[in-house]
Design a protein that fits this description.
The chain has 288 residues and is of the alpha/beta class. The chain has eight helices and 14 strands. The protein folds into two domains: 83 residues, 2-Layer Sandwich (GMP Synthetase, Chain A, domain 3), CATH 3.30.300; 171 residues, Vaccinia Virus protein VP39 (Rossmann fold, 3-Layer(aba) Sandwich), CATH 3.40.50.
Length: 288
């Protein structure tokens, strides 16, 4: 009986290439994980491997056939949500990802794209009911606005983004859907951009580590009869989701709102050691 040859993973093949130039010790420290975003590959590398950036980047280019390889070089930067990366191989960082027929174009070195939010992007589009007015206050390149524009039937979609680089791609990505519904994209701080108060059925607060400071702004945008507010934040993984939902409800009540239905909280993805990214669905009626 002929034994089957064990199939090597892409990371195994990269390690073999890197070992030839950088040595077995460096190759053994290479992680298995990677995020492919079209023609750009994003890695998370231990700091001690920075000296081998060129070798690692070229190895991944060879194994996966990507054009550019970048590595995370720090946390996402502030309210503009700019990634901190360094280029290991290649030059062009503008890329395109297609999910469920939706095209997301962005610059992987200058704008954020969370591959782990795929399920939540689908979910939010399913929740939007025909004829709703929706406000996406941290629109980015269109993470949630695009699925809503493509797969739901809102009467109005307003997307606000503060980062000029992300906003440029937001406009480009939304353009194919402009004939389907009323879409308005605004560049600026969502606390300062002029928006119609009291006219929205659904508001998305997609900022991490926590969107809680924007609860009053969302309530001001909500219809007097109430609105669904989707609040993103991070929590400790050991904390029950029900406790987090109770905490969110208390914060809305402290802002003067009435909670029309029990708050539902669900995990979106892991978010660093011991923490997770969660979203709370809140049906809130703003106070007087």
């Amino acid at each position: 009986m002929i034994a089957r040859r064990e199939r090597r993973t892409p990371a195994d093949r990269v390690r073999a290439i890197v070992a030839r130039s950088a040595g077995d010790a460096a190759a053994s420290r290479l992680p298995d994980g990677y995020h492919r975003m079209g023609r750009v590959l994003l890695l998370r590398l231990p700091d001690e491997l920075a000296a081998y950036d060129r070798e690692i980047g070229r190895a991944w280019q060879h194994v996966l056939g990507v054009e550019t390889v970048i590595a995370r070089d720090g946390p996402i930067d502030g309210e503009l949500r700019r990634p901190r990366v360094r280029i290991l191989a290649g030059e062009e960082t503008t890329t395109q990802v297609t999910e469920h027929g939706i095209r997301y174009r962005f610059d992987a070195a200058r704008t954020m794209f969370a591959t782990g939010n795929r399920t939540e992007r689908q979910r939010i589009a399913r929740l939007v009911r025909p004829g709703e007015a929706v406000a996406d206050l941290f629109a980015g390149i269109g993470y949630f606005s695009l699925p809503i524009a493509a797969h739901a039937a809102p009467a109005r979609l307003v997307a606000v983004e503060k980062n000029p680089e992300a906003f440029r791609f937001l406009q480009e990505n939304l353009a194919p859907y402009a004939s389907r519904t009323s879409i308005a994209a605004h560049l600026g701080d969502n606390r300062e951009v002029s928006l119609p108060m009291g006219e929205f059925d659904r508001i998305i607060l997609g900022y991490l580590p926590s969107s809680e400071p924007w609860i009053p702004r969302a309530l001001a945008l909500a219809r007097p009869s109430g609105a669904w507010i989707h609040l993103h934040r991070t929590e400790e993984t050991r904390r029950p989701l029900s406790e987090g939902a109770t905490d969110v409800a208390q914060k809305f009540r402290a802002a003067g709102a009435t909670i029309a239905e029990p708050v539902l909280s669900r995990e979106v993805k892991p978010y660093g050691p011991g923490r997770r990214h969660v979203v709370a669905d809140v049906h809130a009626i703003p106070g007087p």
